[in-house]
Design a protein that fits this description.
With about 240 residues, this protein is an alpha+beta fold. It is built from three helices and 15 strands. The strands form five sheets. Strands 6-7-8-9 form a four-stranded antiparallel sheet, with no helix packed on it. It is elongated and about 85 Å long.
Length: about 240
Amino acid sequence: MVYVKIKSRRVWRTPLIWVIIGLACLCAIPLLFGLRICIANSKTIAQWDQWTSHLSGPPSSWQSPSNGFRPFTSDIVAVSQEGLTYHLLGYKDERGQVVIPPRFSACGERFYEDLAWASDPEQRKSGYINPDGSWTIVVPGSTHSDFVGGMGEFQVIGPDGFPLFGFVNRKGEVIVPPRYRSAAWYVDGYVLVGERTWVGRVLDKISLEFGVSISTCMDIRKVLLDHAGRKVSELDWHRRSP
């Protein structure tokens, strides 16, 4: 028996079994939450796999480039803010002629939808350039992702030190704010992203505090977004699916 004493000095006797049941219920709450997240993630990923089953690999394997431009490494050496040295990159055409002079610290392998991602350390810009080297879109933070499906991915560093992903359209408008911890490419107007749950936020704090990395199936919630950045419900999945 467990005795509980309160201010009135009245003593209640609580059977130990009820205490055990109460503790078990408290422990079951996060487990049920995690099970719900895992099941929902499995359904969302399965739906995404069904929609993208005709594709394989990154966009370079299923999207045709806009031109024959390829990046090249120059002899020009630059120094990063961290004190690291690197060679500036530019672009050459199919004949080997320089079409975009070297000025990038990093850039895309090909142009897709007439755009290539690039980072210019001197101008402190990151985004998407035209074939003539001019900027079409300058993103918040940085990008290292090809322009696919009319959308460009970018990332910023969140207040907890972890990267957050968002998307811009061809006009440079932020359609999906940078609040997702993972992101795929837009395919036929939809994209699979991962948003942090409260469990994930707790694990992030533990990781920062103790320097350990902990990952579970319930720290990320998988979500499908449409071309306007809206979440797609399961009912909409079935309306879209053939």
